[in-house]
């Protein structure tokens, strides 16, 4: 079927530009260009080759590093090598370090923490005999690798032992333990225990986590200088490694076979598979992203290190975990660059006063446009003010830059002439240079065909320089602005206008010009960069880093602000009829137009198809059956064409969405109106996603015959919103969300004159669970209780919150107090029925205490009072022996 009628010029240009700009953004994702060689990167491993480093192997195996522009080499570990030492000495770009890297960073060593492969450490100690108390380890010989988890544990031993523990350097040979050359041997739970069982060697495990000692492990680190100078490479390395871990956890067998084939491994295939199975629990925790580094957890580790004498109080006080965790938007300025900014709090910027949408100065002297938005972000991050020039013309801007009066050009092509007096960053915008002429003009395949013709060009711009240099046989007509150049074509003062597609698009839409179209593509792009004066060399690296710190989302937001596809949303009935009539006319003309026009039409269709692909487009008939779908939509919903074509649109609406609302929306579309909104969809593979949709009716002879639907995938945006209101560990709503909803829910109950029920429950003796079994076990207990509560309190109006530590809140509207208390009592029994051991509790199992408040009618809303009542009732339940419910009926 035909995808769309021939659009008016402003729509055509808008679509073309959208595709081209999106392509330029995608091209910027790699740290190197497609035509460049891969960037060589080395990673020093901290141990022998095994599944412990599966994320790195998988990223190599699957080509994730190469796709990111990286050629990664994994450096084998040898006895005596510390990965962090190799990074600090700059013999390796990255290193896989133990949790002791936190101590190194707190001591001021220039290390940046990139990601953590293991969310908590699998490190344990192997012993030949069971250990019942730490005094048994007096004078024991310990072989370990400098991991802070083991160091902290040894400190605890030395605090109670008669003789200090003797520490031996690691050899990497498990036989040292088997031969009893050492009493304690540091090992990974994922590795050595399996090997010892295979050999039939008796051993016992001592897990520091059982003593409340927690830490990350296998932290990828890099030198601060490397992060400062190559932040894009570091970010690419992190993202590719995370992808590698995702693949490795899903395809352990494939990765194990790859390791065995490509690396020297001192264990068999079965041992690697067993290690892979154990590794999953340390890499991916529920609701915690792979590779995550939490500043609070790192600060807690630093505090523990200070308490055991590994760092001083002053070092702890000076330590800022946020600053040692690598973030791609951090600037990592050198001392020289920081000094320059202190000495130059105001930086003068050369701005074209009339070059919409890139930049312009309004009547009040304010700087606007794409470049202004970029510089606003960069100014905030650098802590400086970018002051735009007051030059009246672009030629004057260039003269000021050449004289040194202007320090920066905000948006310019790095032409050979300008490079004589300016340095340039990498391009941050890229657009094609095209020819625009009247609609009667045929497509210009070769610019040599323009010999003797007059082409309007912006005066002093690179377009003029390029055209006069490469095609001297063409007569150029310098004009003051894009708008003047387009009018020159319409008034037949020039055959065509040559310029930037984005500027042309903006001017045509703003002026409402008709009768023009793109008739030629130079094959050359305007690669727009930031220029800096060669008299201040530090400024180039500063601007490059500031530019790199602007992420893809921010770039997209700037783009959308200046180039929104508003035509479909704002087109009324009459306009659409005109478009249809124009399409019919064009279809007739196509019967006799020349081959040249056919070529141009083919290019236009290609652009339209590409924009449909970018927007996950579908076309449905008036009955709601899908008649056409883009390939990108197929990928979004994970379907084959046969699963989509002919299906009703509702098939892809998530079952939790209101079907009646969708029917009303579709009925509105059939009346000739447009609709925009956010909906939750579901695919053939069961995967759900969130999309912002725009539905636009298609008319034929004034009647709606179908609907075009375009989409923007906003799943990540919705997930970020969920992160803000959800507790990371349990997935329940957090205290922030309770604070947001508490008062509105009370008001709702008051308005509806309906009951209001609220309960607060708390895990009894929870601290003893942490102390006795370790914080990891404590976290697992919290997850189990939250899961049980979610399954039990599952009515439509039940809302659960984790408000801190082991405290939870339930809000509902039960029909009676007795029903409410009965439901709570059953929950209390179910918790005890989990039989989760808590030896330090008088009940010997985990229990909960509950404070409950039931209101038949909310007469006076007082959020603070209501919350204080349930808090008091919970405290009273604890005072009465715990594992019980204390309730009141008031309000």
From TrEMBL:
Residue ranges annotated for the PAS domain, each copy included: 621-673
Organism, scientific name: Thiomicrorhabdus marina
InterPro entries: Diguanylate_Cyclase, GGDEF_dom, Nucleotide_cyclase, PAS, PAS-like_dom_sf, Rev_trsase/Diguanyl_cyclase, Solute-binding_3/MltF_N, SsuA/THI5
EC id: 2.7.7.65
UniProt keyword list: Membrane, Transmembrane, Transmembrane helix
Gene3D superfamilies: 3.30.70.270, PAS domain, Periplasmic binding protein-like II
Keyword Membrane: yes
Catalytic function, reaction form: 2 GTP = 3',3'-c-di-GMP + 2 diphosphate
Domain GGDEF: 754-890
Protein name listed in UniProt: diguanylate cyclase
Transmembrane helix among keywords: yes
Transmembrane feature ranges: 576-598
Enzyme class: transferase
């Amino acid at each position: 079927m035909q995808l769309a009628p021939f659009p008016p010029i402003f729509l055509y240009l808008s679509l073309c530009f959208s595709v081209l700009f999106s392509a330029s953004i995608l091209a910027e994702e790699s740290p190197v260009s497609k035509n460049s060689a891969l960037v060589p990167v080395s990673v020093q491993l901290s141990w022998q080759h095994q599944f412990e480093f599966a994320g790195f192997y998988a990223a190599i195996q699957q080509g994730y590093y190469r796709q990111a522009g990286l050629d990664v080499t994994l450096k084998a570990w040898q006895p005596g090598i510390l990965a962090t030492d190799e990074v600090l000495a700059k013999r390796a770009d990255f290193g896989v370090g133990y949790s002791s890297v936190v101590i190194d960073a707190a001591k001021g060593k220039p290390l940046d923490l990139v990601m953590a492969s293991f969310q908590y450490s699998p490190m344990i100690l192997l012993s030949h005999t069971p250990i019942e108390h730490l005094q048994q380890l007096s004078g024991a010989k310990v072989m370990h690798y400098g991991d802070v988890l083991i160091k902290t544990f040894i400190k605890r031993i030395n605090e109670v032992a008669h003789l200090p523990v003797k520490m031996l350097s690691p050899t990497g040979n498990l036989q040292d333990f088997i031969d009893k050359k050492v009493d304690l041997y540091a090992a990974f739970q994922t590795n050595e225990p399996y090997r010892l069982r295979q050999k039939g060697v008796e051993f016992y495990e001592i897990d520091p986590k059982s003593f409340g000692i927690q830490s990350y492990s296998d932290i990828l680190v890099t030198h601060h200088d490397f992060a400062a100078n190559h932040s894009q490479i570091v970010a690419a390395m992190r993202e590719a490694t995370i992808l590698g871990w995702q693949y490795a956890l899903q395809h352990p067998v494939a990765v194990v076979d790859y390791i065995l084939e490509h690396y020297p491994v001192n264990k068999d295939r079965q041992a690697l598979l067993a290690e892979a199975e154990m590794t999953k629990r340390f890499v991916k925790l529920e609701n915690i992203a792979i590779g995550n580094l939490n500043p609070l957890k790192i600060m807690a580790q630093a505090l523990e290190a200070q308490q055991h004498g590994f760092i001083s109080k002053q070092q702890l006080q000076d330590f800022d975990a946020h600053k040692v965790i690598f973030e791609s938007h951090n600037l990592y300025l050198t001392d020289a660059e920081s000094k320059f900014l202190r000495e130059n709090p105001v930086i003068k910027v050369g701005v074209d006063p009339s070059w919409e949408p890139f930049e312009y100065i309004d009547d009040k002297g304010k700087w606007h446009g794409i470049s202004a938005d970029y510089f606003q972000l960069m100014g905030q991050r650098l802590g400086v003010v970018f002051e735009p020039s007051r030059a009246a013309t672009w030629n004057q801007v260039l003269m000021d830059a050449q004289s040194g009066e202007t320090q920066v050009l905000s948006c310019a092509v790095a032409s050979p002439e300008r490079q004589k007096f300016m340095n340039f960053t990498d391009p941050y915008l890229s657009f094609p240079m095209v020819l625009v002429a009247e609609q009667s003009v045929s497509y210009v395949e070769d610019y040599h065909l323009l010999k003797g013709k007059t082409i309007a060009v912006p005066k002093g711009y690179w377009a003029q320089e390029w055209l006069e240099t490469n095609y001297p046989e063409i007569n150029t007509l310098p004009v003051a602005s894009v708008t003047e150049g387009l009018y020159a074509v319409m008034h037949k003062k020039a055959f065509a206008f040559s310029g930037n597609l984005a500027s042309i698009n903006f001017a045509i839409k703003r002026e409402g010009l008709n009768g023009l179209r793109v008739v030629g593509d130079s094959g050359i792009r305007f690669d727009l960069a930031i220029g800096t004066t060669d008299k201040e060399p530090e400024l180039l690296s500063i601007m490059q880093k500031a530019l790199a710190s602007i992420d893809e989302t921010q770039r997209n937001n700037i783009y959308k602000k200046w180039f929104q596809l508003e035509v479909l949303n704002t087109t009324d009935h009459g306009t659409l009829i005109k478009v249809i009539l124009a399409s019919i006319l064009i279809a007739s003309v196509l019967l006799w137009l020349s081959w040249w026009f056919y070529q141009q039409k083919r290019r236009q269709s290609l652009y339209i198809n590409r924009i449909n692909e970018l927007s996950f487009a579908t076309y449905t008939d008036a009955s709601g059956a899908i008649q056409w779908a883009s390939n990108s939509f197929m990928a979004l919903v994970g379907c084959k064409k046969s699963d989509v074509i002919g299906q009703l649109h509702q098939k892809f609406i998530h079952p939790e969405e209101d079907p009646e609302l969708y029917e009303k929306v579709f009925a509105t579309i059939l009346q000739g109106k447009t609709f925009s909104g956010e909906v939750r969809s579901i695919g053939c593979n069961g995967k759900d996603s969130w999309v912002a949709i725009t539905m636009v009716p298609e008319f034929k002879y004034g009647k709606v015959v179908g609907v075009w639907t375009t989409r923007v995938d906003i799943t990540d945006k919705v997930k970020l919103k969920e992160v803000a209101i959800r507790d990371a560990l349990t997935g329940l709503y957090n205290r922030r969300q309770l604070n947001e909803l508490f008062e509105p829910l009370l008001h709702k109950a008051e308005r509806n004159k309906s009951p209001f029920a609220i309960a607060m429950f708390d895990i009894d003796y929870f601290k003893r669970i942490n102390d006795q079994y370790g914080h990891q076990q404590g976290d697992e207990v919290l997850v189990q209780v939250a899961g049980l509560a979610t399954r039990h309190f599952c009515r439509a109006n039940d809302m659960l919150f984790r408000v801190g530590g082991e405290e939870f809140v339930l809000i509902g509207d039960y029909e009676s107090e007795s029903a409410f208390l009965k439901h709570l009592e059953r929950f209390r029994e179910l918790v005890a029925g989990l039989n989760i051991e808590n030896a330090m509790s008088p009940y010997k199992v985990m229990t909960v205490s509950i404070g409950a408040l039931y209101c038949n009618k909310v007469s006076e809303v007082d959020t603070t009072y209501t919350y204080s009542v349930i808090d008091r009732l919970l405290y009273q339940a604890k005072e009465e022996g715990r594992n019980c419910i204390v309730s009141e009926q008031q309000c």
